[in-house]
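User: I'm curious whether this sequence folds into something compact or stays loose and floppy. Could you predict its structure so I can see for myself?
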Amino acid sequence: MTVEQESDIERPVRAEKGASDRPSRRWLYAVLAFVLVAGVVISGILPRIQARNTVAKETKEMAIPTIVVVHPKPAAPSKEIILPANVQAYIDSPIYARTNGYLKKWYADIGARVTAGQLLAEIETPEVDQQLRQARADLNTSEANLSLAKITADRYAGLLKTDSVSKQDTDNAEANYAAQKATVRAMEANVNRLEQLQSFEKIYAPFTGVITARRTDIGALIDSGSSGGPQNELFHIVQPDRLRVYVNVPQVYSQAAKPGLSADLVLAEFPGRKFEGKLVRTADAIDQNTRTLLVEISVNNPTGTLFSGAYAEVHLKIPGATSSFTLPVTTLLFRSEGLRVVTVPDGQHAQLVPITVGRDYGSEIEVVAGVTGDDSVIANPPDSIVSGEEVRIAQPSSSTPSSGGAKQ
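Assistant: Here's the prediction. I'll summarize afterward.
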């Protein structure tokens, strides 16, 4: 009895302990499950957040363009500019006929060197010859009439002293004598005119030079243009021992292009050879169409080596009036408001700067205003860049030699 009673007493106690432990275990399981779920959630979301922040940061950094800068190089104090030019003879003249007729003979062809006053051609002028003969006959008639009028006037003057003739008859005789003298002078002038026309039958060289063109031949009809017809050029003659070279100098160099500057001519047919010249005069005015100054360069050509009409390059030595710099052409931006370069004054932000350019060297260009030697200019700037935009200057790699090493 005693043992059975004790067992009966212990059973309810144990049952009560088991019932009290079950809620605690449930809470423990719930907490563990929550921690497990939170760990899974955190381990999945946190890397994504970190990755998104990293991508946003990299995107922001990549939006800042990385650029390379160059520094303007000072140009030489005196520079040599190369300009296209036309070579012309010092005297270049066409030769026309002054009388009408037919070409009888010519004595000089192209390439012939002639002296001043040398006969070039002869023209047959039968009409002028006939007019001259008629004018001389009319002059002889007028002189005969003048002689008779003088005799009559003298006779009437003598008879008037004895009152053998009237005063009226004497006045008429003297007036006729005066009229005959005027007629003779007119006839003499006509004869002189026709003689001058006849002298134009012979064509002479006006100066010593070279015949560069002959545009007529024997038997060709010559029209001086006096009758309203077209005037035809017979010969073309040039003086090649001195040459005029005309050059259009850009406006930026116009103030430095003064008479006395030396200039050398270079022609493709004479490789490696230069012909000395000197600037002798300028137009003293800028052409509004080309914005250039026309200058004339004189070149001595005693042997006739250079031909008139040739194309040449003139190496004109211009003194540097102002300090200028050179930049690569890749630094230029062509905007509607004008030519610009992009500088980085503070090392972080871009600034568009207007410039004035001088001579184009091909891969480089001369800048005469707008930049200084201390400016950092962006090479190959983006077309969309604007002033104030943030930029990043690329650091040179360790394998690239520095500018100081390059100079050494």
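Summary: The chain is about 35% helix and 35% strand. The longest strand covers residues 78-96.
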